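Practice problem: predict the structure.
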Amino acid sequence: MQQRPFKQVDVFTATPYRGNPLAVVLDGSGLSTAEMQHFTNWTNLSECTFLLPPTPEGAAKGADYRVRIFCPGRELPFAGHPTLGSCHAWLEAGGVPRGEHVVQECGVGLVKIRRDGGRLAFAAPPLIKSGPLDEADVQLIARGLGVTREDIAAHAWCDNGPNWRGVMLRSAEQVLALRPDATILDGLDVGVVGPRGKVGVVGRQDTGDTQFEVRAFFPGNNGMAEDPVTGSLNAALAQWLIGAGLAPERYVAAQGTVLARRGRVHIERDRDGTIWVGGDSVTCIDGRVLL
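Answer:
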């Protein structure tokens, strides 16, 4: 074992302990997959990342660093809050990008990250699977969420690595009131979104700082777990909702409200059609870890 630089970063918030925490080992060199997985499980966080030099192929395409992303029990090809949190930690530790954007190499390939003042945003990776869900899945999800089939105003595959099934309810209030049944939803990763206003009204004014409420449910060690703030889900939701005319090209989603968090996910589609998923990050723990 050796001492390695380490940070614990709170992502999608500028206020410590109100976002989604991430453990970042800034030097993962020499660690085996089993060692990375064991440490991730020990942290008891939703994700942990290990930064490494890019592969020769990645470096040739402009990658600044490579990241391996783990959650309890498995490695992930991509995840949103680990992408922003890892980039925040890398920059704070003195990382200097080779070009205009920071370029991260991970399981899905290269991901661009742009800086907007103190806020970072990643370019949403292409969806692996899109289009409407099977009706049987929709009815199952409705039962598992405790709503009627008519309460689901729209639905789609939101698979960009994590295989999210996305459903839109008719209001943010409905989303906040959900109490999902883990038995019914067992084995499904379900993302739920609801507007603060009428479904399908694009470009409307909103009295608060957010236009949508989002919640993310997935099987956990003790039944159904809920993620505080989820970058991958919000990226996929944005591609679906903006493409379908269910959301404006720029909006802010709230997530984590029922968990006493205050996650804010900033979405923007630029002139080239790229969807950027952004948020603030703050370092809560900075030091070294024996690993």
